[in-house]
Amino acid sequence: MYDELGSSLFEAICRLPWYPITRTEQHLLHVHRRTIFDRLAAISTVVELGAGSGEKLVTLIAGLASRDVTIHLVDVSAAALDKATDAVAACCALPIVTHQATYEVGLSEIRPSVSDGRTLVVFLGSNIGNFDPPGADAFLGGIRASVRPGDALLLGADLVRPGAELLLAYDDPLGVTAAFNRNLLVRVNRELCGDFDVNRFAHRAIWNAQESRVEMHLVSLEQQRVRVQASGVDITFDVNEPIWTESSYKYRIEDLGAMLERREFRVVGQWIENNFALTLAEAV
Ligand code: AVI
């Protein structure tokens, strides 16, 4: 979960001309929302995992033909839930239930009754890419375990694109992604009583083609020692020694289908633009 500054920096990243994920996904949702709901007759529950600002969900649910749908928002952040609730409430008069919880716990709290229609779980923004492959697999398995056959999942996932484009997306010329990454040290200092000197670490993004992931690192610019009091550790860094802070996996279209099928989801619709895929899959 991002802290307040981290969330603001991430929102800024989403607006950068070099970071296409958010814009492309919004466009796909806008263009295909009717088709998505046409393919899913009798939806009575829409669950968004990781509500964020609610912007994407608002775009999607404008395609709902029925007003007989309850919206569930799941997020660990109370601020994100408030923001998303306001956004959804401002656009459509649908009942909203919030779950300030992890995805797994939130999903377990939503128990539509047998007489209810189908559930659509929405997991957008290529957040799936921040799990490593076993984690993504387990996560999809967890979603499948909490829905019934005939329920559906709408998954947004970023695809492999040329390495140079990926590096621009994760190491932008304005330095916003660098600030987002280095903010982790600010956070460790504040929350764990660390004494990182942020100026002594540089942001570095690497496209690891073999593992199909962009890796974000913070590289020590000099030999140094850092104390993180709350964890009771002293860490020594050599010059150029990295801290690996995040991975963002990029998929090939066939991997996405295989990953979903392994977890008993059948792809019933897929829309691709600018190396980004929006996939609708039904639980079998
Ligand atoms: C949230 N997540 C999908 C972003 C991504 O693209 O992996 C996080 C991010 N990190 C740096 N830029 C964006």
Structure description:
It is built from nine helices and twelve strands. Helix 1 (about 5-15) runs antiparallel to helix 8 (about 175-190). The chain folds into two domains: about 5-160 and about 250-284, Rossmann fold; about 165-250, no CATH class. The chain starts with a helix and ends with a strand. By secondary structure, it is of the alpha/beta class. The strands form three sheets. A seven-stranded mixed beta sheet has the order 3-2-1-4-5-12-11, with helices on both faces. It has a three-stranded antiparallel beta sheet with strand order 6-7-10. The protein binds N,N-dimethyl-L-histidine. N,N-dimethyl-L-histidine binds near residues 126, 130, 177, 246 and 248.
Oligomer: single chain
Bound molecules: N,N-dimethyl-L-histidine
Low-confidence stretches: none
Tell the overall outline. Answer: globular
Number of extended strands? 12
Counting DSSP H or I runs of 4 or more residues, the number of helices is: 9
- According to CATH, the homologous superfamily of the largest domain is Vaccinia Virus protein VP39
> What does the radius of gyration come to?
20 Å
**Span between N and C termini?**
31 Å
- Helical fraction equals 25-40%
Q: Return the CATH topology of the largest domain.
A: Rossmann fold
Strand order of the largest sheet: 3-2-1-4-5-12-11
Q: Roughly what is the average pLDDT, rounded to an integer? A: 95
Q: How many independent structural domains?
A: 2
Strand content: 25-35%
**Top CATH class of the largest domain:** Alpha Beta
